[in-house]
Design a protein that fits this description.
membrane
Length: about 425
């Protein structure tokens, strides 16, 4: 067998192993070891494992993963999400379907201090859904808005998926963060327009009955500031410090985690037992992510050794399909894989194959990364996997709420994301202008 044939066989073997239930990281290591052994020999394969473990995880940059994860968990338990929703609820109370729009903007702000979509889905399912249903919104629409807007957590910086992409593509994490700002604002706008269209022309899909006017109790300037200041401080510390050049991504994560810890302590939402639980959860998430990165690095090196990515680049780009045909094929494949497996796994499987082709096609890898993240996030809303949807179902713990209703409620936002994806393809500066300053 040639190297290209071995590489192709390893990809097929990985898909089979995943389908029969083997964890993706372990599957990658197994097929990569087998591939290198067949291309070279077992001695080279054993040495490469050690080299990959050292080279892929020794970077100072990887400290950003546990720091941003810890910050997100601390922010979640400190009630900042509820305060964010309360502020936007007051600001948008006179807008048509204002609670839905408030949920989108609150999620956008919350995303800028967490970086994890599932955290947003979990928090706002408990905060926004009961409030919306109480005021006459349908349960399907309420849960759909929360599910749809939760995807902003992986696009608006800081974002765990952006960090993973930056590592795999050898791009700057800071530039990837900057690249997510424009597309994140674009999706927030598209989600808002979607809500307004539904509320105007398909009222039955938004409202379950008569809509109660929001009775907003008078609130002092001090009370409003008490809710808004922690949000502003965290956003300023993390994003202001990062974009202002005061911190690198790792330092911004450390400052953000410290700020979130201080807020949680001041609000008395943290005790020693809960802090220990958060640290353990942070460690579990970090280890799983870094293990997957190590496995993906091994897989990428095996593919490079086989020559498969270069052969694919020559075949696809020299044929009738062309660069944008390849891009369309890649995005469709990402979205389809999102029906079945989680976001991080999709990126770790496909990017080692797709990045060399994208480079050969002359694509801006930062723009390509943003497109990848948006396409991957669509999978959070689509059946049968739809992780955000299942998170909302678990958080609400309502036996009368059907999974199918949440999926149907999220479908308009899937279409909005498709439109957003097309706009970013047509107008790349939306993703690149800020990152290239």
């Amino acid at each position: 067998m040639t190297g290209v044939e071995i590489g192709a066989a390893c990809i097929v073997a990985l898909v089979v192993l995943i389908m029969i239930g083997m964890p993706i990281g372990i599957g990658m290591i197994v097929v990569s070891f087998a591939g290198v052994t067949l291309i070279r020999n077992d001695v080279v394969a054993i040495r490469m494992i050690g080299s990959v473990a050292n080279d892929s995880l020794e970077e100072y940059l990887f400290a950003v993963v546990p720091l941003f994860v810890l910050m997100g968990l601390l922010v979640t338990i400190s009630g900042v999400g509820k305060d964010t929703f309360d502020l936007f609820e007051r600001l948008l109370r006179r807008v048509r379907a204002g609670l839905g729009v408030a949920t989108v903007f609150a999620n956008a702000v919350f995303a800028s201090i967490t970086g994890i979509s599932i955290a947003s889905a979990s928090v706002f399912s408990r905060v926004a859904v009961p409030e919306m249903t109480r005021h006459g919104y349908s349960r399907r629409f309420s849960t759909g808005v929360v599910a749809g807007s939760s995807v902003l957590g992986m696009l608006i910086p800081p974002s765990l998926l952006m960090i993973i992409y930056a590592v795999l593509a050898e791009e700057s994490v800071g530039r990837m963060f900057l690249a997510g700002v424009g597309p994140g604002l674009l999706l927030s706008l598209l989600f808002t327009v979607t809500i307004l269209i539904l509320a105007t022309w398909r009222r039955s899909s938004v409202f379950a009955g008569e809509v109660d006017e929001l009775a907003v109790e008078p609130q002092s300037v001090f009370d409003s500031a008490k809710k808004g200041i922690p949000i502003v401080v965290l956003v300023t510390l993390v994003l202001g410090g990062l974009y202002g050049g005061f911190f690198n991504p790792t330092e911004a994560g450390a400052v953000g985690a410290l700020g979130a810890l201080v807020i949680a302590l001041l609000r008395r939402s943290l005790n020693s037992s809960r802090l220990w639980d958060l640290l353990v959860e942070t460690g579990q998430v970090t280890v799983s992510v870094l293990f997957l990165i190590m496995a993906a690095t091994f897989f990428s090196r095996m593919l490079a050794m086989s020559g498969l990515p270069n052969a694919l680049a020559q075949t696809l780009l020299a044929g009738s399909i062309g660069p944008y045909g390849f891009l369309l094929l890649f995005l469709v494949l990402v979205i389809v894989m999102g029906f079945l497996i989680d976001s991080i796994s999709i990126m770790l499987i496909l990017l080692p194959i797709a990045l060399p082709v994208a480079t050969e096609a002359g694509f801006d890898l930062i723009w390509f990364g943003v497109l990848t993240v948006v396409a991957v996030e669509i999978g959070l809303l689509t059946p049968p996997f739809g992780l955000s949807v299942y998170t909302i179902k678990a958080a609400l713990d309502d036996p009368d709420l059907k999974i199918s209703d949440i999926f149907l409620g999220a479908m308009p936002f899937v279409f909005a994301m498709m439109v957003g994806l097309a706009i970013i393809v047509i107008f790349p500066p939306i993703a690149t202008w800020l990152a290239r300053l």
